[in-house]
Design goal:
single chain; 233 residues; mainly alpha; three-stranded antiparallel beta sheet; 6 helices; 65% helix
């Protein structure tokens, strides 16, 4: 029993040591920092896009969030909660109280208490999602153009920002390399004895080179043989 316990403790210690070694690596820490900064940058871009789209869609009811298309119901489940009382596939946000009153009266009768109306309103809100100034039935097929446009613009802004950052980084990197090369060349001009000697690397022999050498030797041998035959004649 003690041997199994010691073995388990040893395995746990080894696992913990490997884990600490893993999380202490530089690339893991850099990746963690990049993820945090990327998340913060994404939040900034999202806020900026929302502001721009809010300004651009000032006249649209509900703003950019109200740009939706509710597809026609393909079956009864997509038709709505109670079509007869205004709870179809969608309805305006301002009609919520009136529709809740009508829906409550259809269930509990005329003159129902406000508590029943609020209870019915809670049921309605559980089955409908608000898009700007429009409530859409959760089981209906909805094309959310606002979210789609928002995502595309966010992607373009992030992609353009990364492109600019990479261009600036590569430009600075190239200029820095050129400056370092010029400084190094100026130093070697003042101190030529410290200039490193360029050692030529031996040419690597390929199979083609070997075949060419064999061919040349065969040509030489054939040439010597033919000359010996001529002298004998």
């Amino acid at each position: 029993m003690s041997k199994k316990k010691n073995k388990a403790t040893k395995n746990l210690s080894s696992w913990w040591a490997d884990f600490k070694k893993f999380i202490s690596r530089g690339n893991v820490l850099d990746m963690a920092v990049g993820v945090v900064i990327g998340g913060a940058f994404s939040a900034i871009v999202t806020a900026l896009v929302n502001i721009l789209l809010s300004v651009c869609t000032w006249g649209v009811p509900g703003g950019i969030a109200g740009l939706i298309t509710v597809l026609p119901a393909a079956n009864e489940a997509q038709a709505g909660l109670d079509v007869a009382n205004g709870l179809g596939q969608y309805f305006a946000k301002g009609d919520l109280q009136t529709i809740a009153q009508a829906y409550a009266e259809s269930i509990y009768g005329l003159g129902c208490e406000d508590q029943l109306v609020e209870s019915v309103k809670t049921t309605i809100l559980a089955n409908y999602k608000l898009y700007g100034e429009t409530y859409a039935y959760t089981q209906a097929a909805v094309i959310d153009w606002g979210t789609f446009i928002n995502t595309i613009i966010s992607f373009l802004i992030i992609a353009f920002t990364l492109f600019v950052i990479l261009k600036v980084y590569n430009y600075v990197k190239t200029k820095r390399a050129e400056m370092e090369a010029k400084a190094l060349e100026a130093y070697y001009n003042k101190h030529p004895e410290e200039r490193p000697v360029v050692v030529e690397q031996p040419k690597s022999i390929t199979e083609l080179d070997v075949l060419k050498e064999i061919k040349e030797e065969l040509v030489k041998l054939n040439g010597n043989g033919s000359s010996e035959e001529k002298s004998a004649e």
